[in-house]
Automatic annotation (TrEMBL):
Binds 2 Mg(2+) ions per subunit. This is Ribose-phosphate pyrophosphokinase. It catalyses: D-ribose 5-phosphate + ATP = 5-phospho-alpha-D-ribose 1-diphosphate + AMP + H(+). GO terms for biological process: 5-phosphoribose 1-diphosphate biosynthetic process; purine nucleotide biosynthetic process; ribonucleoside monophosphate biosynthetic process. CDD domains: PRTases_typeI. Its EC number is 2.7.6.1. The gene is prs. One of its GO terms (cellular component) is cytoplasm. The lineage of its organism: Bacteria, Bacillati, Bacillota, Clostridia, Eubacteriales. Belongs to the ribose-phosphate pyrophosphokinase family. Class I subfamily.
């Protein structure tokens, strides 16, 4: 429970108001009163309905689809709070959009993740709180503090409870080489062996499995990744683990369920028995699927916000 004298305020845009409300409830408070709408010409309209002078303000907004609208909302909300003399403004971005554009893959490519980092700072954000950046080095794109929370401490207990104490037949797998670090941490915390699905990506959102590194024959495999977008990589890897590697069954987990395009259809038609996601992105009815289980992130974000407010270390949440 918040107990410092300096006032704390939590506001939200239209990206994921339910998550913001759950975070506020975890902290034993109500959401700040504000309106975020659209003018007739399509411009974003923001109105803060209560005083924030000297307050410690947290603006909760995932930059998920529609990405550009949600990004503009949080930028304008930050600007509004700073111009209203807020003491400090923290951008709480459970899912950080544009994170995959973190380098120049070919000539004349933009580095959009750096651009977004610059814009957030220029808008007036004093710090950023997010979860499982696609590339952890994006923290270095900012000139303000960034707390990058991890989804593993939420996902891992779910599977520990599901499979019980006997984990001798379980293997953790990375769906591609880019997910090896995250999968290795997951495997180490559960004291399980690691396998890797090697693939190549001939073009964006298209992947082809080349080889499986590690023994998964007759094993139950847990695929671990940071996000599921079109689900091509995840489902191809799962199918390969069964067809090429001889795995008995495949489960999967990820922090962010982007689930764009044919994702739901691919998941339903794949060998994946269950896909566990966190609710950093709202999953509407159009993304309903019996195979998908969603776990809440509000308790972790609430504790992080309380620690930031109380000037306590956030690093304990990474354990």
């Amino acid at each position: 429970m918040i107990n410092r004298g300096k006032e704390i305020k939590i506001f939200t845009g239209n990206a994921h108001p339910q998550l913001a409300k759950h975070i506020a409830t975890e902290l034993g408070m109500d959401l700040g009163e504000n309106e975020v709408g659209i003018f007739s010409d399509g411009e974003t309209s923001v109105s803060i309905k209560e005083s924030v002078r000297g307050s410690d303000v947290f603006v909760v907004q995932s930059t998920c689809k529609p990405v550009n609208n949600n990004l503009m909302e949080i930028l304008i909300m930050i600007d509004a709070c700073k111009r209203a003399s807020a003491g400090r403004v923290t951008a709480v971005i459970p899912y950080f959009g544009y994170a995959r554009q973190d380098r120049k893959a070919k000539a004349r490519d933009p580095i959009s993740a750096k651009l977004v980092a610059n814009i957030l700072s220029k808008a007036g954000a004093d710090r950023v709180l997010t979860m499982d950046l696609h590339a952890p080095q994006i923290q270095g794109f900012f000139d303000i503090p960034v707390d990058n929370l991890q989804g593993v401490p939420i996902l891992m207990p779910y599977f520990m409870k599901k499979f019980g104490k006997d984990l001798s037949n379980i293997v953790v797998s990375a769906p591609d080489l880019g997910a090896v670090t995250r999968s290795r941490k997951f495997a180490e915390k559960m004291d399980l062996p690691l396998a890797i699905v090697e693939k190549r990506r001939p073009k964006a959102n298209v992947s082809e499995v080349m080889n499986i590194i590690g023994d998964v024959r007759d094993k139950t495999v847990i695929l671990v990744d940071d996000m599921v977008d079109t689900a091509g990589t995840l489902t191809n890897s799962a199918n390969a683990l069964v067809e090429k590697g001889g795995a008995k069954e495949v489960y999967a987990c990820a922090t962010h369920g982007v689930l764009s395009g044919p994702a739901i259809e691919r998941i339903e038609n794949s060998v994946i028995k269950e896909l566990v996601l966190l609710d950093t992105i709202p999953l509407g009815e159009e993304k309903a699927c019996d195979k998908i289980t969603v776990l809440p992130v509000a308790p972790v974000f609430a504790e992080a916000i309380e620690r930031i407010y109380e000037e306590l270390p956030v690093s304990t949440l990474f354990a």
